[in-house]
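Honest question from a wet-lab person: if I give you the sequences of every part of a complex, can you actually get the arrangement of the whole thing, not just the pieces? Trying it with mine:
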Amino acid sequence: MPDHLSNTFSALADPTRRAILARLAAGEASVTELAEPFAMSLPAVSKHLKVLERAGLITRGREAQWRPCKLDAAPLQNAAQWIEQYSRFWEQSLDRLEEYLNKIQAQATTKIPTPNKENPDASGSK
Amino acid sequence: MPDHLSNTFSALADPTRRAILARLAAGEASVTELAEPFAMSLPAVSKHLKVLERAGLITRGREAQWRPCKLDAAPLQNAAQWIEQYSRFWEQSLDRLEEYLNKIQAQATTKIPTPNKENPDASGSK
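Yes, you can. This is the full assembly:
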């Protein structure tokens, strides 16, 4: 059974491949155009493109000379759906952080009372 | 510079590691408990846990005997945010699919008109 999710995550586990996808988000590009910003050889870029193509993240045009690469986001949607199952965990973490910050803020307010001239009793100096 | 996103995606690019995360989503577990459903040796599971730990996806308890593993979803949130940049692409694809389905449905309705007894002119048999 081909494991599409593993192929997708594996393809994304490289900064050059993620940069190639970011470039293709702006529109189709040839291998030469994709190689330019990376100071990489064409074979090195082609190797990355093969990984992306195998993962279904890009498609290539059919003409032999000009085979533009095009982003295909469908596997990204599956990857996003898989990760989203865990969103309640990071939302919980944020809730707990907020709770903690409120608590230490409340403690700080209790320890360092604002001087209150209208009610000298509140200063604790009595 | 450590490449956190690559570490996260690389850790997720394995079905056993994703299954371990799914198990930990239900609560903390020891290595022995994690190994049970996989019919894997403890060293093999430990190796996967090391990858997950290095990626920051799990934390381990400190006691030597019972070192429960715990899910840490923070790296997943970063991964989700990276992928979400591309959501407009899969939404566009869905829009285009809907457009296409509407179009072929409209064509089908035109080609096979419903017989209309109250208005025989509409049947086209005149």
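Two things worth pointing out. Residues 122-126 of chain A have pLDDT under 50 and may be disordered. Chain A touches chain B through 31 residues (CB under 8 Å).
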